[in-house]
Amino acid sequence: MKLAREGIQLSFDIAGKGSPEFLFVHGLGGDRTHFAPQMEYFGRQGRALNAELRGHGESDKPHQDYSIEGFAEDLVWLCARQEITKPVIVGQSMGGNMALEIAARYPDFPAGLVLLDSGVLFPASAGAVFTSYLEGLQGPNFADEVRKIVADSCLPTDRCHAHVEQTFLATPQHVLVSTFRSLFPWDVHRAGQCAQACRVPVLYIEAAHRLADLDRFAALCPQLVTAKAVGSGHFLSLEVPEQINAMIDRFISLYVRGRE
Questions:
Q1: What residue ranges define each of the domains in the chain, with the CATH number in brackets?
Q2: First-to-last CA distance in the chain?
Q3: For a disulfide at 178, which of 23, 66, 164, 252, Cβ 3.0-4.6 Å?
Q4: Containing H/E element for 226?
Q5: Tens of pLDDT along 168-203?
């Protein structure tokens, strides 16, 4: 399905009915297929919206500045049009940053947040790596740099590698570059504020490589619950859905339902 916001077509899938409600948000270079296993599973439990960010998948890809804040506003707008009023927001990678941004801007909107290996409060070691990635994405060997980023993000055993590479390569260079440029400024100037402002339960599920300062995150957001997936690189919603779905189920039953 598609809806136009200010002339920009936003693509999404919707499934199920009733409560609980879910909003699934893929990361940079992804599309709604990255949450297909969760849509199949949680769409049988309640009402689920699987969003496709502008610039990605079948959504429009205008030449503009892309930012966490802009994506977040699109997502809240899309939920309002589909009468999703109190979702558990599940975001993979950059999608988790958007989930935190939404929780800070609209504290009464989410029922809870699930961040899947999101780069929130980056460890100090990430700066040089991400600067190198951005330089590569801006250069003439764009496709090679995309393949390198995906390979670095995956474990050698990850079965989803080829599929993720395909979705990244389908994302235009101007979208990846603009969004990448926005990530570090958001992390430096906004991530801590959003974590501190968040009042709903939060589950962070880590993959193989640490992308967040979880000690600092917990100090800012005391309700944070952390977990770690076994045997998965960065794209864990695709690689180990059986683990992810079970952890989300448990999180909702213990921390979200008790607040309703």
A1: 2-259 (3.40.50.1820)
A2: 30
A3: 66
A4: strand 224-228
A5: 999 999 999 999 999 999 999 999 999 999 999 999
